[in-house]
Amino acid sequence: MSKTVQSRVGEITQSSVLSPQSSSVLIHLQDVSKIYGTGETAVRAVDRVSLSVQTGELVLILGPSGAGKTTLLALIGGLLHPTSGTIQVAGAELHTLSPSALSRFRLQQIGFVFQFFQLLSALTARENVEVVLRLGGSAPKAARQRAEELLVRLGLGARLTHLPAELSGGEKQRVALARALALHPPLLIADEPTGSLDSRSGEEVIRLLRQLVDEEHHTVLIASHDQRIAPVASRVLRCEDGRLVEGCLKTSDQ
Amino acid sequence: MFLLARKNLLVHTGRFLLAIAGITSSVVLVLLLMGLYAGWRENMSAYLRHVHADLWVGQKGASDLFHTLSLLPAIGEQLLRQVEGVGEVSSFVGRLMTCEVRGQQRHTFIVGVDDAENGAVEIVAGRGDVHDGEIVIDQVFARKEGIQLGDTLTVAGQALAVIGIARGGNCFLYQYAFVTLTQARRLFGLDGIVNYFLVRLSPTASTAEVVSRIENATPLVSVFSKDQFIANNLSLTGDNFLPILRVLEVIGLLVGTVVIGLTIYTLTVEHGPEYGVLKAVGASDRTLYWTAALQALTCGLLGWLLGVPLSWGVVTLAQYFVPQFPAASSPRHALWMLGCTVGMSLIAASLPARRIARIDPLLAFKG
Predict the structure, then answer these.
(1) How far apart are CA A12 and CA A26, in angstroms?
(2) Same-domain status, B88 and B175
(3) Based on the structure, what is the number of domains in chain B?
(4) Domains and CATH numbers, chain A
(5) Percent of chain A's residues with pLDDT above 90
(6) What value of ipTM does the predicted structure carry?
(7) Is residue B313 domain-resident?
(8) Which residues in chain B are closer than 8 Å to A111, comparing Cβ atoms?
(9) Domain that holds residue B75
(10) Tens digit of pLDDT for each residue in B232-249?
(11) Are A46 and A75 contacting, i.e. CB atoms less than 8 angstroms apart?
(12) Are A122 and B8 within 8 A, CB to CB?
């Protein structure tokens, strides 16, 4: 982190957007806007954003609270519909999918990691991972086995039967990461993954995310205000007032 | 999602147990009411089904034993015997009478017949071949009043020795007792009068044709098939009794539905953000509805599992302490209640399901 983040203000232009037809492009946004409310009270949370992310990239979106990072992630994750523009993820035009198809799409194509972990409080660490596997159609025994494998791999072998309330913040986020990876989704979306962690746990989560890109070629999209993540990112973007601008810290062609 | 449904239920143990208790109470109440009606119907008609008669012939306008009066001259028997298709004819007199038991006034429906086959349904103690000065009483009446074989009942000033105790004659409000036809006429002051003639048809005779012939031969009578006469006796009481029971049953089912609904709704509200997370990671609305439905079904079925044997126990206890309590326990009722419980659970799950549908998956991004 010797470099300072120097924003080169300006939208990511059309010329810098990779072609959606390219087989390596996993995410493609074209002039996407999200406006809440109408008239004078309208808030433009995301403002004409165009973006392409290639398979295997770890893209970090930096920005202050209220900049529109989370809204952008929700749009890419199919949790929000854009007011205008198109979003293509893993070859699917999200606006063409029915609500049930969109749910299925999220389940199979995207793993989510949230700032506040969002583990199910009544379930153990293993069961939290199993739930997603069962939703994906795994048999109970196979789901249990896969959940255990993932948790052991993430260093939680001794915490399988612990409830979330019995885990530290770092452990909870690792369980959340295991849940996100359970169905081998090509895309991981992480919203402030280090936001609720101490520095040591945060660094551990960052290391794991980078490892996932390097070893399993997941594509990872992180929204954060934590600049410590920047060194491990393939590309750093800045989000300001709903507009995405390229950060000078690191770009895909560096 | 059974895992989540179960765990979320069990994490609030006290509330879960309260819900089960509420549903169990509802199941017990409904089963008791159903049993009460079935038992009343069964008991009410047991003797009438037992009577060896194809036709009941009474005075014009009379239609049953308890609410309408039928008085016919005994000589009518000769007339009936002459009708083509009539096999045998016997006489029946019966009336609700006050009797004195250890100085207390009690009521019993005293029946006098001249055909021994038309006496009590089944003798459980003593003997059934009653003679003048003797009486056979129902076991419910005997237990209720503490009467034993050899005791004496005083009816209309005449002492009658209890020589038999029978079953199948409990009509809830009163029980049948049996004396000879002669004795009954003496008690009722009905010399030369019967209340009904009991007609058995010749083997090849058609019921409709014989009914028509009797009504043509004696226009002052009403003739009923056995089934019709039983229905007449049941309907007059049933028309008044049944709607009340049905209303109470519906209230019981509603209470059960509300208990399940409130429990699952509260659970859904409390775990709303978690449902939002599940929606975010890809659980469909349908899957989450099923989670609520599974929770409702779990509560409902556990309530049913506890409620069925408990209702049987309550019936047994009630009949021990209140012998005339006519409730009958039946596996058919238990199965019917199972269907109701599933229905109650699914209806109860509809409110939480609507709540789930409104939960925003974006909650997952919030603290």
Answers:
(1) 17
(2) yes
(3) 2
(4) 7-247 (3.40.50.300)
(5) 64
(6) 0.85
(7) yes
(8) 281
(9) 61-219
(10) 988 867 777 778 888 999
(11) yes
(12) yes
